[in-house]
């Protein structure tokens, strides 16, 4: 495979990287935002519509992020304050946001519009081999690299990141140490939602330009699966996204030879998700997860212990 | 330097959990906090550690009044608590456990902290590798981790809430050494325990609570009998003895061991006769609950054998137990007894369990009859959440099949009004007369002596006493509950 | 969480709120509000053809919702119904393609196969849950997409039309494999009967049988249920299998009375839409029929919106979503207020 095609893989997977990092942060705080597919659709539409109207791509991306962030806040509010089931609210919002995106986006269907401009990084882009793959992209792609690195550092190496993990891991202990559990949960649900929205907008402004009904091709559901496959670890999750991009490319290349296979490959993340869950829930594996060092945890993956549970102080 | 509690008062609804409690704990003092379940210990501990706010009263440290609304306020003021189940983050390293929730005023620096951890470990003889994962530590080591963290946070008062419940003998020795060292370095330690020998061996003074009130704060050591009397009160009046008919050996426990995630009971050898009533005494978590579940077939024993009517039944299913007249009634009547959201009629339909289709008229009629027979205040369409605790317990009794062989029951009258409590026992005694063996746990010594033929005392997961209630005294039971053989 | 429970006036308040919200949206797009609502009625019930179409759309939705009631009542968040519908459709299609038989034998065989196909897909979710420790939410979701992959594979692979490898669908079935319809209409009495029978069965199971009562009690409190002697894992597995089997029937009606062949979008999204219906119904099976029928009115009525007012077909979905969101949020806020009041009382 030549560098150009691999560069396409990277750029194709970029919206997924945003969404997966966003959802990983949200779930690290113990909240499940199941509305990803609807959120991404609505923000893909919003992102395109805003960019189309204003001619400003950055505004479009921000608008996409904000709309999805607000959906995420509805989930946080319903589960923290109203004590509703996160899953139920997530599903309802998924369907609602998907339909809303189709309705509100009707005037923008299949219109040519702005897109994110390519920006080759001078020195890095000229490195033979990886240069053309990684560094002859656009700002969106570069920010996704930074995002992955940043959140890896943030989650595991900063004070705030440790507090984030603490909240999703054992809220009562976090509370006892003076952490405002529900405030953090609101914050990271909104932040995660924002990144999910960026991913949605990135899709319509960079990957599949423009807007049409059901534009994002199940990327929301795929992102949910990759969060699990990625073991709630930002780097592994990002690698999962690129793996998915690669599989898509392989499917495309194989289309003339094996037409069936190419249509079926996009579902691969889902059996992988199920296998990951079976794997980490296996008793012996669990034992290993709790015994092992940092690298072992990277390999095995581990859900935040209090994922989906609500917290009320004494 | 001292911690001073003045006129602390706290009530929950109509229950007065702490009634005007005043204590002063000096620097370097190891101060015990003793009392039965429900005496008000945990409320007091929660107030001192910032988890609860008192209705009235003041707390001061070194003459400075403290205004705390959360545990982090408490630790900032210098009061740290080690919970029974240490509140550590299992997937985190020891260093990260120190750093989670770090106050803004302190630097987030893993390198420096590693040295601090090593220094504290050395000073107190802990074996803490700063980079080890908390999940790899024993419970004793997790306690060390928490103590070290609280020291590092600047705690000058340390509360230990029943710290010896889940640790081994050697770990306990180590913990006590640590506590003495802490006190020698000027720390005020509040040691909460049920275990009289521990209180005696380590504390300088002890505050004894009973039914929410402070009874006395004697200096230690003092005669254990005095502590027992302070804890349980003096029994002067004659207590009527239950006279039940005792028939053949019905149930034999041959060295059974049962455990679940939280508790364990080991090596129980016992014979129960038809119609006998056996009380299980002991503090919360000493093993009564898991033993009762094992006897009812709800939790399988992992060692030992059970014989019923001279046939071995150790490996029979819970279904088999139910079909052969075993029944279990839990203390958590709403969580594990009844089903919130189902009506009383539906409960009877569920318990009846004969045919695949339900005749609702018949079920409603049965419910109606039982409501009257058990004088339950409610209608056939009431749900458990609409009923008072007493009526819930009556409902649970009403739902039992008529001919039971063995009834295994936790806290038959806990939280009930006197009328309901009397009524429940009238019903239970009636059952026993008809041949049902009743095994029940209780933290009320009066109840145990009043109604049992025999009393088994559980302590730390074993049976340490098998007493005939006719021949025993509250004092003897109380001592055994606290782990003291007289 | 039980979806909607509570007095009728708060239900109506929620319906009103959602109508106001949708009206605002319409006003924003300068769409005549009153006409839109009347067109919804006339467009879905205005003629026998339209009524027939509305009924036909309600069939799979009613069945899917009935399937969801079974698992939701047992406390299971089964979002694998989409996959189970597909599995039923695939199994029924297999029979329709492979067996050359008179329609009197073929149709029952298809129904049976769909039932088993859906049951098998439900069994997978159940086994993953009780043996593999995989929550039914993720197991079900994953298997939805696996089923989608399977049907796409079949449509363009082994079952593709001769010489064409496209995702447009298989060869239409022989007419023996079509549910008979009322002359001149798309309405199939057999399909409608199947949906009504399924709901009646679910009502019967939950109102009259020990099995239904036990499922409910597991959903409400698994610990107490176990103490009552109910083998909880086995019942959970049974609920998922039965729910899957019922969902499979929706797949049968989709292939045998709507599409008459297998297409990739055979599930029609009814597995997800059914969740909205069940939440609105507060898990009460008898309410499934009117609510699903109302949802179908919106679906068919919105075709008229498109034709007559030029409105986008998704407006119906927006309406449904707003309705469910308002109902769920409003009833939760009411509960929150009640809890607060109760709390204040005990504090005093």
UniProtKB/TrEMBL annotation, chain B:
Residues 3-236, 245-485 form the ABC transporter domain. The keyword Transport does not apply. GO terms for molecular function: ATP binding; ATP hydrolysis activity. The keyword Disulfide bond does not apply. Keywords: ATP-binding, Nucleotide-binding. InterPro entries: AAA+_ATPase, ABC_carbohydrate_import_ATPase, ABC_transporter-like_ATP-bd, P-loop_NTPase. It holds the Pfam family ABC_tran. This is ABC transporter domain-containing protein. It comes from marine metagenome.
